[in-house]
Amino acid sequence: MAVAITPRAGVEEIRHISSISDARCLITKTEYRAFAAGELFKEITRNPDAKLKQHIIIDGPAERYVVDGEILENLPSTNDAAGLPGTAPDEIFLLNTTSGTTGMPKCVKQHQARWFAYAEYVHDACGATDKDVFMRAIPSSVGFGLWSGHFTPTLLGATTVILPGFTVERMLAGIENHKVSVLAAVSTQFLMALNSDAIEKYDLSSLAVLFTGGEAVPFAKAAEFEDRVGAKVLQFYGSNECGAISYTKCSDTRERRLNTAGHVIQAMDVSVILDSAGNSSARTGLGQPLCRGPLMSFGYYNDEQGNSRLFSEEGFMLLEDKVEIDQFGYLRVIGRIGDFIIRGGKNISAVAVENYALKHPAVKLAAALPVPDPVYGERVGLAVVLEEGASLDLGDVVSFLLEQEISKSYFPEKLFVLNEIPMGSGGKVAKHELRRKLFPDGDATE
To answer: Which domain holds residue 75?
Structure first.
């Protein structure tokens, strides 16, 4: 069993992931961000209880391997691959990480049966076949990256283009060079393409479908992309944990493709909780969605507390959103129940941002909140009340977090120093009131 880690994970996160997954071996390139690979391994295994014992370094394009300091041309094998036990479709074969409400990543238990089912819905959405060429512009470690860049193209027998790293120019050039027909990119990435002069330089006529999501898909920009490129914009709505509960199809009208998250998937047994107490649910209406079906994961690995929040007593999986399902079965996302900031399609725990900021000696009180952004959808905002006599600017916070070896995902991009932060009757930060205080006219540019 392997564990997929996002390339933006910090040392603390990797240490946490290796611990909860009981990982024995770390595989890296010669460098990971600012770390030499050997130093990274030492940092992760400083805890004497660490189960991580072996480190394999893939050394450049020659694909030499460094195992515990010894350079090898090929990895040693103690088993004949043909004799290894197979993994059944309904058994765990992979863990991948996802953001949790506490900030530390959780490991989602993946099984192959869900990806077989997913490929069928991709085919239904756009008619993809083995003649298509896919391109994955998002990281492979996230659920969107897994199905779009690995499982679905493989099951279809289709060619896949994997970008070594995202830039707008690299993505657009790759579409032209490889005649890509199906692109998987979060909304931020296609917005960046629309805002770039490079979109006029390349022949994108091969592109038939853009699968996007991760955050709200802006109707006007998605329509502009369709008109300029000639591809249809589609999306699945769901989560890493539950898979998809609705999707749009090429056969849908533009209004439904771009103004809804698609028709609910009947096999996922989707309903909405109509009241905050969870006493009633229905197939249509406004509320928190829950589901149970073939696209679901098995929940979190080694995390009973996380699973108790993820599943209802009846075994349905809960999503941290408020949605509305109309009489025709089309779903619209109204807002989030969980306290997340969605920056460029990535869920960033506001609680984690706050906890890291509170470690700074000048910070007395902290509240993280999304700041609207035309390209990324949201950026990470941080409102703070300082200790008496202290001063702080954004550069101070960033420098401090760099010293703490925190993932840059949790770095605030806008800092608001306040005399007080509004609190609710329960002693929690009143974030709706805070937003109104900071952005009275809905303008977050100052």
So the answer is: 2-83
In a domain, 163, yes or no: yes
Helix, strand, or coil (residue 338): coil
Q: Is residue 249 part of a domain?
A: yes
- Give the C-alpha separation, 274 to 6, whole Å: 35
Dmax (CA) for the chain in angstroms is 68
Round to whole Å and give the CA distance between 270 and 266: 7
Q: pLDDT tens digit string along 141-153?
A: 888 889 998 899 9
Which of 38, 64, 83 is at the close of a domain? 83
Does 282 map to a domain?
no
Distance CA(216)–CA(395), nearest Å, equals 30
Residue among 11, 27, 18 nearest 401 (CA): 11
- The candidate with the shortest Cα–Cα distance to 26, out of 12, 13, 16, 40, is 40
Are residues 308 and 204 part of one domain?
A: yes
Determine contact, residues 206/175, Cβ cutoff 8 Å.
yes
| Helix (H) or strand (E) segment spanning residue 357 | helix 350-357
Interior angle at CA 142, CA 249 and CA 288, nearest 5: 65
| Backbone CA torsion sign across 140, 146, 147, 150 | positive
Instruction: For 109-159, write each residue's pLDDT tens digit.
Output: 999 999 999 999 999 999 999 999 999 998 888 888 899 988 999 999 999
Q: What is the CA radius of gyration of the chain?
A: 23
Instruction: Indicate whether this model's pTM tops 0.70.
Output: yes
Residues written for the chain? 446
Clarify whether residues 401 and 346 are in a common domain: yes
